[in-house]
UniProtKB/TrEMBL annotation:
The lineage of its organism: Bacteria, Pseudomonadati, Bacteroidota, Flavobacteriia, Flavobacteriales. InterPro entries: ArsR-like_HTH, AsnC-type_HTH_dom, Dimeric_a/b-barrel, Tscrpt_reg_AsnC-like, Tscrpt_reg_AsnC/Lrp_C, Tscrpt_reg_HTH_AsnC-type_CS, WH-like_DNA-bd_sf, WH_DNA-bd_sf. GO terms for cellular component: cytosol. Keywords: DNA-binding, Transcription, Transcription regulation. This is AsnC family transcriptional regulator. It comes from Flavobacterium hydrophilum. The keyword DNA-binding applies.
Length: 152
């Protein structure tokens, strides 16, 4: 599907605040409510809009300790990669897991309450996964930018 300028503007508006009504969106886009509704439905059908979510302030729910954990596997076989990925997906503390190139195989974004909670996670959950060769943890000092908006 090719996105036109209106689709792109609509996507930015929805990413900024997906609770806006089709009427509010129609006023910003200078389109009818029906046209906006149909565009949204088309974007959903095509899989461009995957989901709608509520963004939670992690500091208000005592999950403000962010760790970026780099992992190396002991081998790079398809079996080891598949097994690790199927296990790491199940860990609630892991918000993101990216298979990367370079010195490490994966980078995890882990969210916990504090250093003690991270140690518990590391010792009881992460290092119990099969095929992990080594880990290196980096702790967030401050969040400079965190955006969910993809711009066009």
């Amino acid at each position: 599907m090719t996105l036109d300028a209106t689709d792109k503007k609509l996507l930015v508006l929805l990413q900024t605040d997906s609770k806006k009504t089709t009427k509010e969106l129609s006023l910003k886009l200078n389109l009818s409510v029906t046209a906006v509704y149909e565009r949204i439905k088309k974007l959903e059908r095509e899989g461009i809009i995957k989901n709608y979510v509520a963004l939670v302030d992690k500091s208000k729910i005592e999950k403000g300790f962010v760790v970026f954990c780099h992992l190396k596997l002991i081998q790079h076989t398809k079996e080891f990669l598949t097994k690790f990925e199927s296990e790491v997906i199940k860990l609630n503390e892991v918000l993101e897991c990216h298979h990367v190139s370079g010195d490490y195989d994966y980078i995890l974004k882990v969210l916990v309450k504090d250093m003690e909670a991270y140690r518990e996670f590391l010792v009881t959950k992460l290092t119990s996964l099969q095929h992990i060769g080594s880990t290196q943890s980096m702790f967030m000092i401050s969040e400079v930018k965190n955006s969910t908006i993809i711009s066009f």
